[in-house]
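My current task is to audit a protein record that another person submitted. Thanks in advance; the entry in question is below:
***
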Amino acid sequence: LPTELVFANDNDIGAKKIFDENFSVSINPLDIKELNPYDLPEADIITGGFPCQSFSVSATNPPRLGIKDERGKLFFYMNKIIQVKRPKVFVAENVKGIFSANGGKAFPLIIDTFKKSGYDVTYHLFHSEEYGVPQKRQRVFIVGFRKDLDINFEFPDPIYKDESEYIPLRRVIENKVDEKYFFSKR
């Protein structure tokens, strides 16, 4: 189905630059904490990838603080937008470490927060290589449908179940790479 992007937000300047070069809607560069949800356009779908640094098991500096870190609390701001705008569905994404952050207490809090906003919420840990992405990366996707829609959502089954079927990186990268993308010998 055709979709229309009506709003985008990210305060990372690098992400904004890449996004703005590829999409017709320019990113709003405000911190999500500064957004007034009532000023945002109506939308059927809201997506968000709140920062993963607080939940990643590889976080060392600063250490993995989960929801005790400011970045780890940004899902609350996404949820506030969801509460005000009442989209039909929302999709949130994060790293696998979200399951074990804060001694396993962060993830249930996140799920419960979204559920209390009036959504039937489900989640799934995806192994990207099983869906045709040429890298081994695990990501948690959280999907919520507004309760009044009474939708029983199920995540899709993997496309590739055997490692021999995974798409190797060499099939998707360019054969000739401009010299400017290589490191110098220094």
The chain has a mean pLDDT of 88. The radius of gyration is 19 Å. The chain has four helices and four strands. Residues 74-85 form the longest helix (12 residues).
